[in-house]
TrEMBL record:
Name of the protein: DNA repair protein SWI5 homolog
Ranges of Polar residues composition bias in the record: 21-32
Gene giving rise to this polypeptide: SWI5
A Pfam family it matches: Swi5
Gene Ontology cellular component annotations, sorted alphabetically: Swi5-Sfr1 complex; Swi5-Swi2 complex
UniProt cross-references to InterPro entries, sorted A to Z: DNA-repair_Swi5 (IPR010760)
Keywords of this entry: DNA damage, DNA repair
UniProt xrefs under PANTHER family: DNA REPAIR PROTEIN SWI5 HOMOLOG
Keyword Aminoacyl-tRNA synthetase: no
GO biological process, one term: double-strand break repair via homologous recombination
Top-rank taxon, per record: Eukaryota
Organism: Pelodiscus sinensis (Chinese softshell turtle)
Keyword DNA damage: yes
Length: 114
């Protein structure tokens, strides 16, 4: 007599409807996100876009191109990253020496506004 490898109870569950563990976008609306909130967020983003256009307009009027403005912004981000790294290193050095970072500034010919 041959025995079945799977119990009959499991076979019944194989025919059950598949329920995905990943929720569809439709089900996310039932999680508290409603259409009004999404529309309000879209309007806020549109307003922010208009504000940024107004902020950029004077630079374009002076003859700057968008590419040039983007390059300046990129360079400013790079400068800020380098400055943050320098501040972090000064802080670590100050901690090792047991002094304040303010006391290290003259040793490296830095102004307090740097």
């Amino acid at each position: 007599m041959l025995r079945s490898r799977t119990p009959t109870g499991i076979l019944r569950n194989c025919n059950a409807r598949f329920k995905s563990p990943i929720q569809s976008p439709r089900s996310s609306q039932s999680d508290g996100v409603n259409k009004e909130d999404l529309l309000r967020e879209i309007e806020e983003l549109k307003q922010k876009d208009l504000d940024l256009d107004r902020e950029i307009a004077p630079f374009l009027a002076e003859g700057y191109s968008l590419e040039e403005l983007e390059k300046h912004i990129s360079l400013l981000h790079e400068y800020n990253d380098i400055k943050d790294t320098g501040q972090m290193l000064l802080g670590k050095l100050a901690m090792i020496r047991g002094v304040t970072t303010k006391e290290l500034y003259p040793q490296f010919d830095l102004e307090l506004t740097d």
